[in-house]
Specification:
The protein is mainly α and 274 residues long. It has helices at 39-47, 51-69, 88-93, 99-103, 109-112, 120-141, 143-163, 173-190, 192-215, 221-238, 248-273, and strands at residues 8-10, 17-19.
Length: 274
């Protein structure tokens, strides 16, 4: 049952118990807190949203699809980071971004490219970092803010990359650096012994990541830098759980980000068959 027509729920703003059909919250005055009986379903969805697992699964699925799209090139040697990598043809068809894609009006690739990877080593290390950082960001910020930080960081990272003329780019590393930026902000803002430890550790990881990017070929440092800045600024804008509970607007924005991601992949399918 999608709608809850009777019973009680927690107000999405003040977290006080109210009727699901209340026109306004008697505690904080929020209008239509139950959103016509849909809010309990939305809260359950966001509360149980295994974001780390979904990102992992989507990246793996897209990696397999890009390999199968042009299987003749899988074992063609192209460098360490491209071992068992898909071809440029398949990546371009399935949502690779960059200055080239932007020149052709493919704005949706700013999202789809987050979930594409250029080889086995590329996807392995990116997913390792996602599984390391996303649960920490979810703990500090909540699942809705995690979705917004991850998505906005990836987009901002690619926008920065495109601005500096990188013609072709893919990967979740912009979003990963965004998660690092969010954790750096959390540690710096929280302060105290725990906050200082989080700040030092996450800043060390970020500096190591930036350093490796300058010493290894084929790394998109503009996307890393843009993603880090995007994650830091998004975290600063949204706040974290210890100081501010996730609001109704944040949760709806997170659902919007999920919907936009689905729409972006729909545009990839549309372009494949149009």
């Amino acid at each position: 049952m999608i709608r809850q027509k009777t019973g009680s729920m927690l107000c999405p703003d003040c977290n006080q118990l109210i009727s699901v059909n209340a026109e306004t919250c008697i505690h904080c005055g929020r209008r239509n807190p139950g959103m016509w009986g849909l809010m309990p379903m939305l809260r359950k969805f966001l509360g149980n949203f295994g974001f780390t697992e979904v990102v992992t699964a989507l990246c793996i699925i897209m990696y397999v699809i890009t390999l199968l799209f042009d299987p003749a090139t899988i074992f063609r040697p192209r460098g360490l980071l491209s071992i068992l990598g898909p071809s440029m043809r398949s990546l371009d068809a399935l949502g690779m971004t960059g200055a080239y894609a932007m020149q052709h009006g493919r704005w949706w690739t700013l999202i789809t490219a987050i979930y594409l990877h250029g080889g086995l080593i590329h996807i392995f290390f990116n997913l390792m970092w996602v599984r390391q950082l996303a649960p920490a960001v979810e703990e500090f910020f909540g699942v809705a803010r995690l979705i917004l930080i991850f998505t906005s960081s990836g987009i901002i990272g690619f926008i920065a990359s495109n601005f500096f003329g990188i013609p072709f780019t893919i990967g979740a590393s912009g979003s990963i650096f965004g998660l690092l930026g969010a954790v750096v902000y959390y540690g710096y803002s929280r302060g105290g012994e725990f906050g200082a430890a989080i700040f030092r550790q996450s800043l060390q990881w970020a500096l190591i990541g930036f350093a490796l990017g300058f010493f290894m070929s084929g790394i998109n440092n503009w996307a890393h830098g843009g993603g880090f800045a995007g994650g830091y600024l998004t975290a600063m804008l949204l706040g974290y759980s210890e100081r501010r509970a996730e609001t109704y607007a944040m949760k709806m924005a997170a659902l919007g980000a999920v919907g936009l991601t689905i729409f972006a992949f729909g545009m990839v399918v549309w372009n494949l068959f149009s």
